[in-house]
């Protein structure tokens, strides 16, 4: 067994690829907020490829802004910011590689000045973000900037008074303010979160934040800073002790925080950068002028399918994505959702055959080695349902298209929030709006359909009579027949 560190790289099992470049010589060019599982399987991996190909000046300074990120800091600092990425293909082929592109990790609550210094450094040309859908504070229904987290709210007051930032948005705005005050070129703000128009959303959040701190700064950012949109894709489950053990058993690497993901990877990136960008296209990134068709395809087919399978799956007693996707009843339901409800809302996607894309998704979902849990998909469902599924519902209502599978998912979500599976066992929803959601769903007892009046999620959709009637029917079907029974009923219609 070899404990991972810069010193032990040459001792690793030769099946584990290691950085071929001199990490000590890599200069930083990207400051990344939110060094979670996904950043480490995706952007950091692409940058590792770039550095391996000889690119200079694009090392990553990772930043955690949450107190809970101390665990990542501790794990990475113990192994010189290196980690093992293990990918598994649906056919079982496994590859392992030590990623070296994160050259420094900063825990913002303890080192705010170091984070500001990294953003101030003219070598930093991109600030990238994976801070989750909720991290932008944008109300999905209205598009208004309404942050709810304490750090962002504190920064909205504190930044104007010169206090050190606490939130990712606060650091980005403070960093841009320093650039402006120094007469320097700003950095690009590159969101890699799963949000339609993630660049537009990041721009809206940063501008609204800056407007509250210094309107002239907001105007400067609006004129000078690029916020590229992107479609990002690689299924990356949470690292568990079982994953650590697998890396140790299969590759002999003792790694405190490896990442295990699928082999599939995709990044479609809008070519819009303020201060230059790496030659991403040379390492597998699709650099395009319009990302939207790819984004809509991915969010409405992949991410919405995760929502579609998870509430129904958990109600039926399943635990894993592969479990439900290998079940014919669920597979037929998901393919039906993709074919009859999501795909009619999509424009043609350049170079993509949507039949093949949907079939490949089912192969990816069915991959047992990934061990992705249904529970991972439902954390803060109130952030995900509006971004992934409701755009499909809105478009289908507008065109008179089918909605019955999407509505069954909404009904399953409402039943899931009630916390009881079909066999009577307890379910544990995790959602930042759980209290409000439970009040909303309790209203169903006296006023069926009133759950849809919960505006923070549904906006004005609750007033749609067709949707409301279908929702009431779907809830009744789930109550009488359970999740599997409801799927059977749909399959035989
Ligand atoms: N895991 C995947 O399969 C996957 C795939 C594509 C895109 N993504 C995107 O990446 C995001 C992160 O996913 P992950 O798998 O890395 O999760 P994770 O739980 O491993 O990491 C979450 C990261 O987000 C940061 N974060 C969370 N809330 C924040 C906030 N309010 N402000 C600042 N930082 C915050 C945390 O510090 C942490 O680094 C997702 O929300 C999604 O938008 C994930
Ligand atoms: O992480 P989220 O909230 O964007 O959505 C949950 C999953 O659908 C998502 O993580 C997918 O696994 C990912 O988008 C695949 O690329």
UniProtKB/TrEMBL annotation:
Domain Mannitol dehydrogenase N-terminal: 29-281
EC number: 1.1.1.17
Top EC category: oxidoreductase
InterPro entries: 6-PGluconate_DH-like_C_sf, 6PGD_dom2, Mannitol_DH, Mannitol_DH/Oxidoreductase, Mannitol_DH_C, Mannitol_DH_CS, Mannitol_DH_N, NAD(P)-bd_dom_sf
Gene3D superfamilies: N-(1-d-carboxylethyl)-l-norvaline Dehydrogenase, domain 2, NAD(P)-binding Rossmann-like Domain
Key words of the record: NAD, Oxidoreductase
PROSITE patterns: MANNITOL_DHGENASE
Keyword Oxidoreductase assigned: yes
Domain Mannitol dehydrogenase C-terminal: 290-474
Coiled coil: none
KW DNA repair (keyword) present: no
Reaction catalysis annotation: D-mannitol 1-phosphate + NAD(+) = beta-D-fructose 6-phosphate + NADH + H(+)
Family as reported in the entry's similarity comment: Belongs to the mannitol dehydrogenase family.
Name recorded for this polypeptide: Mannitol-1-phosphate 5-dehydrogenase
Organism (species): Herbiconiux gentiana
